[in-house]
Amino acid sequence: MQVTETLSEGLKREFTVVLPAKDLEERLTNELVGLKDKVRINGFRPGKVPVGHLRRVYGRSVMADVLQNLVNETNRKIVEDQGLKLALEPQIVFPESKEEVEAAMEAKGDLSYKVSLEVLPKFEIQDFAGLSVTRETYEVPESELQEALERLAQQNRQFSSKEEGAKAEKGDRVIVDFVGSIDGTPFEGGAGTDVPVDIGSNGFIPGFEEQLIGAAKGQELTITATFPAEYGAAHLAGKEAQFATTVKDVQAPQAVEINDEFAKQFGMENLDALKTALTEAISRDYTAVSRRKLKRQLLDALDAQYAFDLPPSLMSQEFDNIWRQVQADMQQSGKTFADEDTTEEEARAEYEKIAARRVRLGLVLAEIGEKAQVQVSDEEVSQALVERARQFPGQERMVWDFYRKNPQALAEIRAPIFEEKVVDHILGSANVTEKKVSKEELMAEDEDEKPAAAASAEDKPKKARASKKKAEAAEPASDTPQTNASE
Questions:
Q1: What's the pLDDT score for residue 189?
Q2: What are phi and psi of 202, to 5 degrees?
Q3: According to the model, what pLDDT value does residue 424 have?
Q4: Which Pfam families does the record associate with it (predicted)?
Q5: Measured between alpha carbons, how far is 315 from 483 in angstroms, rounded to an integer?
Q6: Secondary structure (DSSP) of 262-295
Q7: Residue 449 contacts residue 293 (beta carbons within 8 Å)
Q8: Which residues pair with 251 in a beta bridge?
Q9: Residues 220/246, Cβ–Cβ less than 8 Å
Q10: Judgement on whether residues 407 and 328 belong to the same structural domain of the protein
Q11: CB contact at 8 A, 68 and 53
Q12: pLDDT beneath 70, residues of the chain
């Protein structure tokens, strides 16, 4: 084979490859000879089929395999000889001339084709010791634990029917049937039977629960309430609806005593054990928030350290993933760019910056992970897959099989594990300062923490701010380690 580089521009490389006819003939003949002992053809004894006959019967299919193998070998040789790291799989362009292709398929002519490559940029990893980040910590006070216990008790309290004629009060549970309509026309999903409504729980659209106060068993009434402007169903958002409602029962909550017997309802030995479990659960939640903010700081610092050209194809893929989600969100909400005081052009520019940040950080983390020899074990992947399967009760086996049979899907499980391990590796050398903060400080989402690549908050329309945050938080759907960065 003959390989000639025809383009070396930025991260793009192009090569012209010529596969001589004599090489094609040699490969084809060797394959056909090896086929003699494997095929059974009527009229011929095993292993005695003439190569010429095999060529007439199997020549084209065997040559197709020969060409595929030669193309793969050539690609590997180009990458190895040039010392390249590919961003994506090579793009192959075969000649448009049917005569040339047919001649190659018969091994009667050379095959010349082009290979287009997109390579990863080269950059030096900076010293982690120069990175300074702050880990915010929050200790759960006794008062918050008590509030959690009281919420748990409230969520698990029992209700009993009030005496005949008793009226519903705040805190009561009312069992109702209802049929909703807008302008006299019933709407999909607007009816319910034997629906429990806890007055004061804010579990229904604003105004619905309050209008049940004073209602008694057997009473029929019409409740008028307005769906929130940001309601998930676009055809209901902001609409006023009437609900023809029948009260079937009014129930009062029974008192719950928080003691050892209460704790045993949750499989705990006593109340102290329940308190310990609750404290650990609450702490895990706050630790996760702290970790997320710490990671954001670290990635912001890394983003500021590196500037290099990005592979156009990776940029395009990342942007397309983000943009599809943006369009899906807007379609679901029924909003347009004009509704959000922006334009499609401005929004695209915003998300292109996000895509660039994610690709850049992905490349940086991949390079750091490779140099540090960060590995993700099969056990870690299996454990994460089990957790993913548990999110689909009753479908665990189907989810497990899907991921196990799809390498690209399984890579989506592996990628965030790799990313977190690389982040831990960096934090091991970075300057990390511990800072005790209040709950409000820990949970605050500071606009100043947004990536430097984005426009300023003052210039950014509110829709862009909200969707941008979602796009930044999303895990990338990629099986390549260079696109693992998500923050």
A1: 87
A2: 60, 35
A3: 96
A4: FKBP_C, Trigger_C, Trigger_N
A5: 10
A6: HHHTTT-SSHHHHHHHHHHHHHHHHHHHHHHHHH
A7: yes
A8: 161, 173
A9: yes
A10: yes
A11: no
A12: 446-487
- pLDDT at residue 469, rounded to an integer: 55
- On average, the pLDDT of the chain sits at 87
The pair of structure tokens assigned to 322 is 């983000």
Using a 10 angstrom Cβ sphere, with 0-12 exposed, 13-18 middle and 19 or more buried, the burial of residue 90 is: buried
Which pLDDT tens digit goes with each residue over 402-448? Answer: 999 999 899 999 999 999 999 999 999 999 999 999 999 999 874 44
Same domain, 433 and 320: yes
Domain end position, chosen among 69, 87, 118: 118
CATH number at residue 37: 3.30.70.1050
Residue 423 domain-assigned (yes or no): yes
> Is 268:277 a contact under the CB 8 Å cutoff?
yes
CB neighbours of 180 closer than 8 A, spacing ≥ 6? 186, 187, 190, 191, 241, 242, 243, 244
What pLDDT is recorded for position 53? 82
The predicted model scores a pTM of 0.73
Q: For 366-476, list the strands marked E by DSSP.
A: 431-436
Please say whether the beta carbons of 244 and 220 come within 8 A: yes
How far lies 312's CA from each of 4, 85, 118, 467, in Å?
Answer: 23, 15, 8, 23
Alpha-carbon dihedral angle through residues 274, 276, 280, 282, given to the nearest 10 degrees:
60
Q: Identify whether 337 is part of a domain.
A: yes
Q: Are residues 106 and 202 in the same domain?
A: no
Structural domain harbouring 55: 2-118
| Tokens found for residue 197 | 């409504």
In this predicted model, what pLDDT tens digit does every residue of 17-71 receive, in sequence order? Answer: 999 999 999 998 888 888 877 777 777 777 777 888 888 888 889 999 999 999 9
